[in-house]
UniProtKB/TrEMBL annotation:
Domain of life from the UniProt record: Bacteria
UniProt cross-references to InterPro entries, sorted A to Z: ATP-dep_Glu-Cys_Ligase-2, CP_ATPgrasp_2, UCP005522
SUPFAM superfamilies per the UniProt record, alphabetical: Glutathione synthetase ATP-binding domain-like (SSF56059)
All copies of domain Circularly permuted ATP-grasp type, residue ranges: 81-454
Pfam families found in the cross-reference section: CP_ATPgrasp_2 (PF14403)
Protein name in the entry: Circularly permuted type 2 ATP-grasp protein
Length: 479
């Protein structure tokens, strides 16, 4: 078969990560394009097929709830990487550090002095009515006053070529295992290209994670566990992967017991004290004595042991209040309030339906907006107005009127696109970017990210639960 070429690749008004508006290749992709055009279609299809098999053999699967087609799927990895210049990445890293510092100051404030509420920087009722605001955490001071030690901030690049923050994930951000395994697979797929482009490494994430977890306790050789909801959780592969990579035990709530306000893991050798818990169980399920009394995923007494300082929970309970999509709209103000700086990475314009004027605008213009539940995730509870039917739009209007606090809206942003292998052609598909930030005694932004790609033609929804896939993200060691 013929060699790869991009003669028929169309731009169509979107920002393309590989080509500019005149179809000239961007500098960060020049070498990759030259190398790829020497590959035949047979070879490229073989490499993609080998990648699919590698994902299956590694167990890189996830579960989709309410899916009748089967329990597990692979998160399809497209072998054409997303390449980010060193200059772009260094700027993003600076902006991400700024944002996570301000958000942690905000979380610490609202559970303690509440100065930000007294100074009316953000409406008090907006914060206190958040489903993720936990009264049980009032007065809490976690180690180093850091609440969200592991975060994944979703970024997009708009049609103007600028990056924007789409949303923050400060509770149990997922996907980092796919970033790490995607890299291992792509290094084997394009070994020469990878070396020649001088791509920044991500393989030491697990070491950084372990070091960060150990830094949160005064115990010299702490016992660290990863708390998972179990094998039926959509991200179970990741829980097991990270535990194995860190040399930590993978446990479920029933494997732990609390005695005299200390947490122990049940082993074949008896009880073993636990010092740090990297939890992948949501707040409401971690302790049935305090939160959801019907939860079988947590451990009775766990929250009490945490309050006594006898165990560290990562991320801290209550951190999810900063994930609230209504709070998101105020983050540039929060950065200015706590740091005295302008936000380096801007937000998308956001309308808060809890505010009367914004609500009226959203209802009147719902056909042009993207509407989201403030506590939604995974692409659920969302309306893309321009792609929705009149009936779907009307249903969302009713939902907004019934519970305006539960919704925000944003203009539809045309996400940037990256060339993607689609059968025997290469076509542009929309992508977002999820970098990962570790925050302990210092802040580490991993020089790579999970690029999620909307595999369906024309789709803007990149979530794996909605049919999205992924790409390896190559950050070049250049300026």
């Amino acid at each position: 078969m013929s060699k790869i070429n991009f003669n028929d690749y169309t731009i169509k008004g979107f920002y393309d990560e590989m080509f500019n508006d005149t179809h000239d290749v961007r500098p960060s992709y020049e070498l990759f394009k030259k190398r790829l055009e020497k590959v035949s279609w047979n070879k490229l299809n073989f490499l993609q097929h080998s990648t699919d098999r590698a994902q299956l053999s590694l167990g890189m699967t996830f579960n989709v709830y309410n899916d009748n087609q089967g329990v597990e799927r692979i998160l399809h990895l497209d072998i054409i990487p997303r390449i980010v210049s060193g200059a772009d990445w260094d700027y993003l890293s600076k902006g991400l550090k700024q944002r996570i510092v301000a958000l942690n100051l905000f979380i610490n404030d609202i559970y303690n002095d509440q100065k930000v509420l007294k100074d009316k920087i953000i409406p008090k009722e907006l914060v206190l009515s958040s489903a993720s605001y936990l009264k049980e955490c009032i007065g809490l001071k976690p180690p180093e006053n850091v609440w969200s030690h592991i975060s994944g901030t979703d970024l997009i690049r708009g049609g103007d070529g600028k990056f924007y923050v789409l949303e923050d994930n400060l509770r149990c951000p997922s996907g980092v295992s796919y970033m790490l395994e995607n890299r291992e697979i792509l290094k084997r797929t394009f070994p020469e290209m990878f070396e020649q482009l001088n791509v920044r490494p991500v393989h030491d994430y697990s070491h950084y994670l372990r070091d960060m977890l150990e830094s949160l306790t005064k115990v010299s050789k702490p016992s660290i566990v990863v708390l998972t909801p179990g094998i039926y959780n959509s991200a179970y592969f990741e829980h097991a992967y990270l535990a194995q990579q860190m040399g930590a035990e993978l446990v479920e709530g029933g494997d732990l017991v609390v005695k005299d306000d200390f947490v122990y893991m049940m082993t074949t050798y008896g009880l073993q004290k636990v010092d740090v818990i990297y939890r992948r169980v949501d707040d409401e399920f971690i302790d049935p004595l305090v939160f959801n009394k019907d939860s079988l995923l947590g451990t009775p007494g766990l929250f009490g042991a945490y309050l006594k300082g006898n165990v560290v929970l990562v991320n801290a309970p209550g951190a999810g209040v900063a994930d609230d999509k209504a709070v998101y709209a105020y983050i540039p103000r929060l950065i200015k309030y706590y740091l005295g700086e302008e936000a380096l990475i801007p937000n998308i314009k956001t309308y808060i339906c809890a505010e009367e004027q914004d609500c009226k605008y959203v209802i009147d213009n719902i056909a042009e907006l993207v509407v989201k539940q403030t506590d939604g995730s995974g692409g659920y509870g969302m309306l893309i107005g321009p792609h929705a039917t009149k009936t779907e739009q009307d249903e969302f209007v009713k939902k907004i009127k019934n519970n305006p606090r539960n919704y925000i809206a944003q203009p539809m942003i045309n996400l940037s696109r990256v060339p993607t292998l689609c059968d025997n052609s290469i076509e542009g598909r929309h992508v977002d970017l999820r970098p990962y930030i570790l925050y302990g005694k210092d802040i580490k932004v991993i020089p790579g990210a999970l690029t999620r790609v909307a595999l369906k033609k024309g789709s803007l929804v990149v979530n794996s639960s909605q049919g999205g896939g992924s790409k390896d993200t190559w950050v070049l060691d250049n300026k």
